[in-house]
Structures are given as structure tokens and as C-alpha cells.
Amino acid sequence: MAALDTAVHTRQRGAGALTVLTWFVGLLFFFPVFWMVLTAFKHEADATTDPPKLFFTPTLEQFGNLFDAGAGPYFLNSLFATTVSTLLVIALAVPAAYALAIRPVKRTQDVLFFFISTKMLPVVAVIVPIYVIAGRIGALDNVWMLVVLYTAMNLPIAVWMMRSFLQEIPAEVLEAAQMDGATLRQTIVQVMLPMVAPGLAATALICVIFAWNEFFFAVNMTASQAATVPLFLVGFMTSEGLYWAQLSAAATLASLPVVLAGWVAQKQLVRGLSMGAIK
Hints:
Layout: H1 2-40, H2 44-47, H3 61-68, H4 71-101, H5 108-117, H6 127-136, H7 143-166, H8 171-179, H9 184-195, H10 197-213, H11 216-221, H12 229-234, E1 237-238, E2 241-242, H13 244-264, H14 266-274
Antiparallel strand pairs: 1-2
């Protein structure tokens, strides 16, 4: 009995130590974000003190300066390109994933490899031909060009994700829908999509994150009319140095839409990312 009590106490101490370590690691990773948000509410003079100031008089001056500096169009361009490209990706990925998961053919694995192989190609290797084509058709510095590029960028991973989610649907459910006289469209919209809604939310959120944070295409394909939020952040890197308070405020605003989207969809996101993990 004493040995059993000792083992239980040892296990409890181990679990407690693991919990403390987990909290420490989590706070360690969260600290840069916390410091960024904290710095966003400082005056510029308080943001560059040595040692750093932890207690200060908060101000919204930096956020007001951002909109005075013309941050609005950058955010609108990012919002438009991210939203439209994500909707297009979902609209294209669902039928493609249905064909690969429910109606596979002999060369399905080759098709899947082709999709994922496009993610292996360095973006810098294709930017020149894309730039030339965009220039020929007059699509440079156009937000619709970003929509097309972001759609192509996110489509392969979306097809792979949606295929894995659709494979979790029992075949008996689809057979029952067919026996009830449901058309293909009704089967997909009324039967399949509600069952994989968490996976759909997870896929959409990942596409939103990738599109919102994308920098390489934006910096090479836009100038002023279609510039996005990442380019706005780069504008704070000047020869005079970094404006830490303004940069932190801009980074906080840039992070806010994705954080809010993840917070709103957190329940669906967790369920979607764990679909198929437990049989």
C-alpha cells in the first residue's frame, strides 16, 4: 500500500512539473506578442528606453498615426484579396476533393502528388514569368492579380485537407442519400458539407492566414494601388531607424483580423484539425 501511495505521489509530482513546464514554454512563446501589444500603446520615447519601461501612461496616439499615414487602403486590399481568394479556393477545392476522395480513379495518387508538388517549387523561381505575363495583360499593381495568385497558392493544400475530411464520411451515408433520390449537388451541399463543416472552417482559416500574411507576391506584383498590409509594415523600416511604437501598433492591427477569425472559429477549428485523429 505504501508503495502504491508513493507511485501515485510520484506521478502527481511529475504531472505537476509537466504542467508548470508547459505553462512556462507557452508564456515564453507568447511574451513577444504581449510585448508587441504593450509597445503599441507607448509613446515613441517610451518604446526605446533602456532598460525598457513596463509601467507607462498608455496612449492611442500610434493607432491614430497609422490611419493618418494612410493605412486604410492597405487593409482594404488585404481584406479583399484574402476574402475573395479564400472563397474561390473553397469553391474549387470542395468538388476537386470530392472527386479524389469519393470518386477516385486509377491515377488519383498521381493527381495528388501533382497538387502537392506545386508547393515544392520555390516561389522565386516562377516570379519572373508571372511578372512578365502580368505586365503583358496589364495586371501589375492590380488587386485581382493577387486574388488569382493567392488562389493558386492555397488551392493545393486546401484540396489535400478537404480530401482527408471527406474520406471520413461513411459510405453508407452517401448511399442513403442516393437511395432517397438526392442529386449530386444536394448530396454535396445538404449532406457532405454539414458533416465536414469543422474541416471546412479549418481549411478556410488556414487559407486566410496564408493569404493575409503573404509578402513575396505582394512586394513584387504591386506598387501603390494594390499594396497590402505586409508592405505597409515594411514602410516603417527607414534609414532613420525603426519607429518601434508605430511598428508595434501596425503589427497589432495587422494581427488582429486573423486572431479574431481564429477566435470566432476556434471550436470548429479544433474539431476540424482533429478530424480523423481518433478512429
